[in-house]
Amino acid sequence: MIYRIGICDDEQLTCSELENYINEIFECKDDKAEIYVWNSGEALKKDISNGVKIDILFLDIELLDSNGIELGKYIRNYMKNMSMNIVYISSMTEYAMELFKIHPYDFVVKPFDKNEIENLIDEMCGYYKQDNKHFKYCVYGKTNMVMMRDIKYFESRGRHIIINLVDNQSIQYVGQLKNEIKKLPLNFVEIGKSYIIN
Fold it and tell me: Is the pLDDT of residue 46 over 90?
């Protein structure tokens, strides 16, 4: 499985250190990581608004151009994305109560060490694998996931399946609906030959 891991911190050294840790951790795994790095909150906000999907996000609280807490609220409340695991990183510890409503996965105090990051990644990857609330699909041989609750309906167009999501974005891959219905829980209903509705 490929995990999309984001790092957003305005300190280049922190980004490089964390990126190196993640690469080293995944060298010993069967799974792979695609790492995305942003040095500003606005760049992160722009990319996720344009459809960049992230499974795990390491997010600094105090960014030069924005606030990590406000970015978290944007992800949860505006983007309606509850599936992204947000791990806040900061040298400050007084933000705990403000973070509570954003439902972050964890909070890591800088400076952090590789063992701490490795334990966090192992936990999150383990939960992803155990969580049957995700629908898995393949694009160019790579396995990806989307939360079941984020799916409005599946649509068949020729040899392609289009997953239409609640945020009005869509995912396209090669497949047949008759095979996909077998992977879905009972709240998904096949309507004719071309649609599966959640």
Answer: yes
H/E run at residue 12: helix 12-27
Please answer whether residues 82 and 63 qualify as being in contact, where contact means their C-beta atoms are separated by less than 8 angstroms: no
* Integer angstrom CA distances of residue 164 from 77, 88, 151: 20, 30, 6
Which of 86, 83, 80, 196 shows the shortest CA–CA distance to 146? 83
Sequence-distant (6+) residues with CB within 8 A of 34 are: 2, 3, 4, 5
DSSP string, 96-162: HHHHGGG--SEEEESS--HHHHHHHHHHHHHHHHH-TTEEEEEETTEEEEEEGGGEEEEEEETTEEE
21-42 residue pLDDT tens: 999 999 988 888 999 999 999 9
Kindly tell me the sign of the dihedral angle through the C-alpha atoms of 46, 48, 50, 52. Answer: positive
Q: DSSP code of 29? A: S
For residue 8, what are its two tokens? 């957003």
pLDDT in tens, 125-176: 887 766 557 888 988 888 888 888 789 999 999 999 999 998 888 999 999 9
The residue whose two tokens read 């151009």 is 65
How far apart are alpha carbons 23 and 35 in whole angstroms? 9
CA distance 68 to 59: 6
Tokens coding 172: 């396209």
pTM over 0.85: no
